Inverse folding.
């Protein structure tokens, strides 16, 4: 009997097998992906802008395919037309004469594969990031570094913010969105924590003034890409629709968003 007990684990090893399951995913026709963020950083001319166009890829692919040969233009309410010219086969379309203006309305037009894509957005102002505070005993472990970027929200005005925390030392990027529903007119802060933050890391912190529609778009997108939520067996998130439309063929809608923002920038060295 004792011998049988000793032999049982070895039998289980030999008879245990692993099934490989191949999931057959349907690959739809690639769609245009529009990454059009016209940002005016405070204290700069804001004349150099880049719009990135690419194509959607299959689920398991990590290859970014540039959308080449498009005609890209932005027009303001004064009939100024800014043409964006592609850098050789990169999908990056550049303009060096853009005129940024707060509360100005801009219209994006993209012609790609004989189809016209349109979007409209207003460049919204943003409060300055006044100062940054650091806490070294944050997080669940009590050992994580927390960063707070303080700003003063304008009173009586509905405001929406996109905060970007770029760790230039690690090359990592984190995004957060906020509204002022419960903080109108108060001093408030954008919050960031990361277990990999270390003393000496240089953080490029940016705050963008965004529209309510862009806030909703980014909020849904960030919820879907939050690695701490959900499990591998729940349904895949649906595609998030932005403010760009295909005027020629509405069913062939694009992904992405056209945003125009004033930007407050703050460089901070982690202590």
């Amino acid at each position: 009997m004792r011998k049988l007990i000793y032999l049982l684990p070895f039998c289980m090893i030999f008879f245990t097998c692993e099934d490989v399951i191949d999931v057959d995913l349907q690959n739809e026709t690639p769609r245009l992906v529009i990454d059009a963020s016209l940002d005016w950083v405070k204290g700069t001319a804001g004349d150099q802008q880049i719009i990135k166009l690419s194509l959607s890829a299959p689920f398991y692919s990590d290859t970014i395919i540039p959308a080449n040969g498009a005609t890209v233009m932005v027009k303001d309410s004064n009939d100024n037309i800014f043409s964006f010219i592609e850098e050789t086969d990169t999908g990056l379309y550049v303009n060096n004469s853009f005129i940024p203006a707060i509360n100005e309305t801009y219209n994006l037009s993209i012609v790609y594969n004989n189809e016209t894509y349109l979007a409209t957005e207003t460049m919204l102002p943003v409060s300055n990031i006044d100062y940054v505070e650091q806490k070294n005993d944050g997080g669940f472990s009590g050992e994580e570094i927390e960063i707070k970027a303080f700003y003063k929200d304008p009173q009586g005005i509905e405001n929406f913010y996109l905060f970007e925390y770029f760790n230039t030392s690690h090359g990592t990027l984190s995004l957060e969105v906020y509204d002022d529903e419960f903080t109108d007119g108060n001093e408030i802060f954008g919050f960031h924590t990361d277990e990999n933050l270390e003393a000496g890391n240089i953080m490029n912190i940016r705050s963008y003034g965004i529209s309510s529609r862009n806030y909703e778009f980014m909020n849904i997108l960030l919820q879907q890409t939050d690695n701490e939520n959900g499990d591998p067996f729940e349904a895949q998130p649906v595609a998030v629709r932005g403010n760009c439309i295909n005027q020629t063929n509405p069913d062939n809608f694009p992904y992405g968003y056209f945003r125009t923002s004033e930007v407050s920038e703050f460089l901070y060295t982690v202590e």
